Amino acid sequence: MRFATVDFQGSPRAAIDFGSHYRVTPFQDLSEALRELDGDIAALADISEFETIDAGEAILYATTKTPHKIICLGLNFTDHVAEMLHDRPAFPTLFAKYALTLTDPYAAIVKPEASNAMDWEVEIGVVIGKPARDVSLEHALDHVAGYTVVNDVSFRDFQNRTSQFLQGKIFERTTPVGPWLVTRDEVDDANDLAMTLTVNGELMQSGRSSQMIFGIAETIVYLSRILTLEPGDLLSMGTPSGVGAGRTPQRFLVPGEVMESSVEGIGVLTNRIISTGSSTS
């Protein structure tokens, strides 16, 4: 099944994607729906109170707008580690984002005046369904509601000011997520999917999730030793090579450019870069 968060009479609502139309539920987004339904995403189909929206008229918001936690992996693809001139990590490199960092799958993204090193990173997003604490590797994926696409837009000049990544990762409304949450049964193997990113149609990133150093189940196990993963939480699994900071010369985003971030079987994000004060339409 596929789910989305759509606009309904001016407000976001979790919805079920039926191809030609969306069935709208009472929940404001999929994170809230998962929390209220104890992680049972399929239970949305049993809710009797809903409206429908034609797919051609639907406005899609970030799949998860209100996650309690957003946990990201840096340096998690072998080729990306090499292009960034780092050693292969022995443990997951973790950083966090905040809900205010997220934006919609087709939203324009404002290039902040403070940064001149705005970079792209196509990633697989993992949305947690059931709570996970001290889980086993065998059952780790049982705690996954589904997958989405994330573009971890990064500001390298801020990121590289210290050894901690956080300040380069949390500019407001710069991390698009969506367009859909695709349930596990729709994806043959999330650890082996094609991932691409283009800028103005030029291929910048092309890799497969099989290059991940720490896979999805392994990451869930590791995180669940540290804290409880809750329904609606978002994990972003890292990016393959081809980022702007890893190129010679380095290449960063400027207003007017359009990114397309694609993960096989999950979806495509399309985001235009605009300058401060520009129209977001």
Automatic annotation (TrEMBL):
Upper taxonomic classification of the species? Bacteria, Bacillati, Actinomycetota, Acidimicrobiia, Acidimicrobiales
Coiled coil: which residue ranges? none
PANTHER family found in the cross-reference section: FUMARYLACETOACETATE HYDROLASE DOMAIN-CONTAINING PROTEIN 2A, FUMARYLACETOACETATE HYDROLASE DOMAIN-CONTAINING PROTEIN 2A-RELATED
Q: Which family does it belong to?
A: Belongs to the FAH family.
Any one GO MF annotation of this record: isomerase activity
Q: What is its EC number?
A: 4.3.2.3
* Domain called Fumarylacetoacetase-like C-terminal: residue spans: 69-273
What does the UniProt keyword field contain? Lyase, Metal-binding
GO biological process, any: carboxylic acid metabolic process
This protein's species is Ferrimicrobium acidiphilum DSM 19497
By what name is this protein known?
Ureidoglycolate lyase
